[in-house]
# Entry
Amino acid sequence: MKLLEIVKESFITLRLNKMRTGLAALGIIIGIGSVIALISIGQGSQFAIETQIQSLGANLLTINPGAVRSAGVREAPGSNTTLTLADAMSIKNSTTITTINSVSPEFSRRFQVIAGGNNSNTQITGVYPEYATIHKITIDSGSFITLRDVDSLGRVAVLGPTTVTNLFGEGAAVIGQTIKINKQSFRIIGVTKAKGGSGFNNPDDTIYIPLSTMQKQLAGVDYVSSIAVEAKSPDVMTDAQNEIGYFLLGRHKITDPAKADFTIMSQSDILNTVSQVIGTFTTLLGGITAISLLVGGIGIMNIMLVTVTERTREIGLRKALGAKKFTIITQFLVESVILTFVGGIIGMLFGIGISLLLSKILSFPSALSLVSIILAMGVSGLIGIIFGWYPAQRAARLQPIEALRWE
Amino acid sequence: MIKMRHIGKTYAQDGVKTVALKDVSFEVSSGEFVAIMGPSGSGKSTLMHILGALDTPTSGQYFLDNEDISKLDDDQLADIRNQKIGFVFQSFNLLPRTTALKNVMLPMAYAGISEGERRAKALQLLDEVGLSDRTEHLSNQLSGGQQQRVAIARALSMDPKIILADEPTGNIATTQAKEIMEIFSKLHRQGRTIIMITHEEDIARHAKRVIVIRDGLITEDKKL
# Structure
C-alpha cells in the first residue's frame, strides 16, 4: 500500500473522530504555540537591543566620575566631582591616546523651564559640538551648539522634539523664540530630529546648551558629569579603554587602578549583559515549554493507545485481508504524525498571533524567524513519531484472530 | 489444492494447556464446496483459522497450493491471506463508516494494485453480488444481507484460490440467508473452491461434501 494512500486514509480516519483528534492535538497546539511565541519575543528583544547598540554608537565609551562599582551601577549625577573639562581637553589633545576620534564633555541636570505660559522640569545638557556626532544627534531645523557658542558663553538652546511639543505644542516653529531655563533667557537656535527612546534619559526630551554656559551660569560648578569618547572603531574599544584609563590615572596621580576615581564603560558592555540576561530568560522559558510539549506528546500517545484498543477489530480485519506489520505501523505512525503536525501548524499560527498581540499591547518587539518555525514543525513531527511508535508497535503486533475475536 | 497432514493445535495460556485440534488430516481439491460442521468447542473454528492462515498449527503440515505454510512468519502469512484466501466472516467485518466500494477495494490496496484497477474490479464484483446501486453507501447504512454481499465481493477481489466462510449466514435474517447461499452456490458453479463452517444442517446442505469434527478429530467425511 502506497504511503500517499495511507496518508489519505489517515486523514479520513482523523476527520471521522473530530473530538478525539482535536483534544489530542490540543496539547501540541499549546506547546508549539508557546514555543513560537517565546522564541519570537526573545529574539525580538535581542534584536531591539542590538539596534539600540547601533543607535548609541558601537564605539562609544563613557567616562563617569566615581569609584569602580558593579557593572552598570552609577551613583547619582553630581555626587562625584572628580572629572573636569580639563580632563576632557587633555584626553582630546593627548599624544599617547591614539585610538579615539572625538571627546565630548557633558554636564546634565534638571531645571525648571518656562516658555510662554508652559512650565516644565526638563533635563538640560551642557555640551560641546562633538556631542551631536558622538551621540548621533541630527538636527531637524536650525543648527546645533557651535564651538563659538561654547567659547562665548552663548545663551542659546537646542531643543529635543518632545520638549518642543511639551512647551510649544506639536510641530511649532520655535527657532528664534526665547525660553527661560532657571529664570535665565535662552534663544532657541535648533531642534533635533526624533531619535526614539523613553524614560529618564530620553534624548528627545532634552535641551542642549553650551557646556560653558551650563557650568558657569546655570549650575555653578567646575566639573562635568561625564565624558563621552568615540573610539576609532569597535575593534579598538579595549585599547581605547586602557589608554584613557592609564592616562587619567596619571593625571589624577593615582597609582593603584583599583582606587580609580572614575569608571570607563562601553555601551555595548552593558547591553551585552542585558541581552545575555534576556537570552538566559528565553532559554529558561523555552525549557518550560519543552516540558509542555512533552506532556502534549504523552497526550498523543495516550490517545493513540486508546485508538489502538478501540480499533482492535479493525486492525485484525486489515491483517486478515493482507496488511503487513509495516503497513499497520505506518498507518498508525502517519496518524500520530498528522495529529502532531497539524497541531504544530495550528500552534504555530496561534504562537505568531500571541507574539504579535503581545508586541502590540506591551509595545514589546517580536521577531518571527524562519528557523524557529522550521524547528517547531520538525519538533512536532518528531513528537508524532516518538510518541506514536509504541502504539503503532502494539497495533502491528496484534494477532489477527485475537483481534477479530475482540468485541 | 489443500492438504492437511496430522494437524494439531494446542493453546497454552497461563500455564494451562488446551488441545483444540488433536490430529486432523484431509484434502480438498480445486472446485470443491465443503462444509465443516461440529458443535461449539469441537475445534472447527481453530481449523478454520489454520485453513485461513490466520494461525499456525503446533504440529503437522498444511500445504496450500503445494506450499507448506505451517512454518511461515507473520508477513508471509499476510501475503498468503491477501492473495490465496478470501474471507467471509459471520459478523461481516466491514470497515465501519466506509463505503461498500472502499471496503471491496481494500485487499487490492494491500496488494499494491493501482487505484483505477481496484475501482473497476470492485465495481464489477459489487455488480455481481447485486449491489451496483449501493456502491457509495457506508457499510453501516446497509442491511445484514447487503453487508455480507459486500464482504463476499471483497473476498473475491483478489481472485483467491479458496473462499473461507465462517458461519456466513449466522447473523442474517432467513430470507436474506437464502440469497447469500445462492451466491455461494453460483460461485461454486463458476468453479471456485469454497470451505464453509456452519452448525446448521440446512445451510450445510448447499455444500457437496460435509466434514464433521468433534473433540479435535474428524468423525465424518461424506459426499452429498
